[in-house]
Every structure is written in structure tokens, then in C-alpha cells.
Amino acid sequence: MSSVFRKLPDSERNTNASLYFGNIDPQCTELLMYELFVQFGPVKNINMPKDRVLKTHQGYGFVEFKNPLDAKYTEDILRGVRLHGKLLKLKKLESKPQTLQRQQIGTFVNSKSELLSDKYIDVGASVFVNNLNPLIDEKFLMNTFSKFGTIIKEPEIKRDHEGNSMGFGFVTFGDFETSDLVIEKLNNTILMNSKISLDYAFKNELGENGKKVRHGDEAERKLAANAKKNNLLKLKNSGRVSKKSKHR
Question: What range(s) does the RRM domain occupy (predicted)?
Fold first, then answer.
């Protein structure tokens, strides 16, 4: 049975027969979850990612059945069920390859009228988002954070060589007013069952003391303020002023 609990590469996983399960109490072990799911059909694989330090699961996991119909049946039957007082959350995995998913996400993001990486000046309002749920993708970040203001680059989620989310990403805004507001409102809030943390991302270059420096410092803010004052936050290669510049 130990092979049932090993992590499978995406290439070996049948996503049509797989479910994500979340909001799991710390008392729920892989064995307990296996015994729950096997009641609805033969289980091929079950995995609950663990904290590297504490060696405890992180409140979610993935189960793959041998038959796709069993996955659908399980999702329907267990809807609304509670384990140790917590509502079990189930979601069908996407059946498309990671590479195709990312291409479609990119198409979606680039079709958004507010995505102006080739038009807006990047003032450095780049936000680091940590502890992301593995099911969150770039499209989800775009939908969530664009509600606060203009995003000028495609949101980025760092992924491993298999295409799996590493749990953190970056969102770049067109001004510091928006990025400040996002950090204030969303830091330490729950996003898809995970408590996320937000801060300004580190710059690529080191500071004068040889240490990493975050975006959003006084120098960047002064440059951004001068650009705004002198009406330089315009659409590049165009005589038009951006919507955001017009209304400020």
C-alpha cells in the first residue's frame, strides 16, 4: 500500500480520475483519507504534501481513482461532509496538460484590456505573494488582484520543473497607491483555504550595503511621483494618455 501514498509526476497522473481535497484538519492522516475515499472506488494514488520542517500535511491533498466515474461520484456524495468539524472541500483537477493550461492562461491575461506591460511604465510596484494554494494559477491571480487597479504584467507563479506551483508568485501594478492598498487589504487573509502573506518583491540588484532591497522604497516612489507629475505615465509609442493617468 505504500506505493499508493507516493507523489506521482503529472505525466503519470490521470487528471480525469483525480480530485483535490482541502480544508483538512491536522488529525486527518493519509491513511484516514485513503480509508474514506476507497469506500467509493479503488484508489490508485493519494498524496498530501507535507511541510518540509514539521513533516505535517498542509491541509490539502490529491486522490486519484482508477476510474474517472468514481472521482465524480465521490465529489457528489461527499459534498457538504465534515471531517473533525471542518467542511471537506473537493474539486476536480483540470484535465489539460500544464503547458497548455499556461498557454491558455497567457492568452486570457493578455486579452485583458488593463494588461499594459508594453504601454505602462514599470515604476517598481511589484508585490510578492507567498503561501499560495497549489490550485491557484495566473488567471486566478489576475482576476483577484485586478479588482484593485491596473496590473501591467502577466502575474507570475513560480513553478518547479514539472510545472507544479512552488507556492509563491508576483503581481506588478501600475502605481504604488494600488500596490500599497493590495498589501494592506490582502496580507494575512485567506485565499482558497490558504493564509497568504504579501510584501514588496526584492529588486534584482543589491543595495549599497550589499543586501537585498525591496521595491517600494523612497527612491522608487519619488521617481514614480515625478513621472506622474510630469505626465510621463503615458502609453508608449502613442500620443494617448492611459486611462489611469487621465483620471488622476
Answer: 17-95, 125-203
